[in-house]
């Protein structure tokens, strides 16, 4: 594909995963912004940027949707849907060792490193559930509708949202192409079943993911749909609005305020999809589909970071909890401290260790991107 577009996707992928990781570590290491006493300019910038966790989730979903759209675009219509599900299922097998390893880390933390109460007294961080029913329920993608996420890994609910979004897209595409009544009825029944089963939070993330699918499947465009400056301005405005709005449901009268908070990340997804569509302009051909290995050091680094991003996104929570518990129990570093050089250094160390562990897991498991990036 277009080298510029590929570089943009890779960079956006690992940056969004990194932002999600820093977002969660900051909640453990730093007090809330309102409780910060001396707010330097560095502190204000840090709190603003590390508050973009859910916005980074939206970017991640759009990128995943783009890869799905690109995958379907390069496959024959009759084979693409089945090949996509097979590809997802093979990658899904990588979830088994990740779930098991995350559970082992949580067991160690609960039994040996819970002096700070991290695993028991802070349900706002994560509710640790280590039952076998939860383990197998997460393997079957039944979280969060029927079972909680396994262990401390609250990020697993987004993985389930990706899986069911993919299944819904494939079955509806097959039903639409068949034009037969029973297939159309089966697609409608699936949609109705998901509507009754999934929590309301599923639908905004489905919409965000479909934005990416549309970019990958329907592009490239001979001319940009928006002026590049307008697309970047839209993305910046969406991020700033989402960040400043926070969780304020009083911005609009009830129930519109609650709906705005539920769907505001779709605005970020629209902004990022607009930028991606502007960059996705060069025609793609079968011979150019596999990307050549980047020749420069920074190009190779960008690609390696992107290959590890999905596992970092999926796996970082149990390791982050354990490393924080080690700092609290063995070295006396209290949770949620005022901003300071030591806290910044510890946040950086935990982030680097989590991302390095994710890269090692990708190499050991042998499945690039851990199932969250169907096209590689």
From TrEMBL:
Keyword Transcription annotated: no
Record has Transmembrane as a keyword: yes
Keywords recorded for this protein, A-Z: Membrane, Transmembrane, Transmembrane helix
TM annotation in the entry: 7-25, 45-72, 93-113, 154-172, 184-205, 225-244, 265-289, 309-331, 343-362
Name by which UniProt lists this protein: Acyltransferase 3 domain-containing protein
Organism: Massilia violaceinigra
Classification lineage: Bacteria, Pseudomonadati, Pseudomonadota, Betaproteobacteria, Burkholderiales
